[in-house]
Design goal:
Elements lengths: L1 E4 L3 E4 L5 H17 L2 H18 L1 E2 L10 E3 L6 H7 L9
Parallel strand pairs: 1-4
Antiparallel strand pairs: 1-2, 2-3
Helix pairs in contact: 1-2
């Protein structure tokens, strides 16, 4: 699965890594629903760090279609809230 982190580039994620990413996504969504800014910031960074860690960065000149788009690390809680779908940022 090709994931784009806004402002950074694309990362190829193996299907086997989606479960751990979904767990982090659920924690991020819970922090947003609770309105907990500090928890939100920690969870967003944890999710993005895990995507970078488990994934393989694609070359900057790659023209792959992104299946998921994640917010940048400095996104506000309101910006991320707007990006959330029925299944969070990462479906599954």
């Amino acid at each position: 699965m090709i994931v784009r982190i806004m402002g950074e580039g694309q990362i190829d994620i193996a299907p086997a890594d989606l479960d751990v990413l979904n767990t982090l996504d659920a924690e991020l969504e819970a922090a947003i629903e609770a309105g907990e800014e500090e928890a939100f910031r920690v969870r967003l960074h944890a999710l993005l760090d895990k995507v970078r860690h488990v994934g393989k960065a694609l070359p900057d000149d790659s023209l792959e279609s992104s299946e998921l788009i994640l917010p940048p690390a400095d996104a506000s809680m309101d910006e991320v809230r707007e990006m959330l779908g029925n299944e969070g940022l990462i479906p599954g």
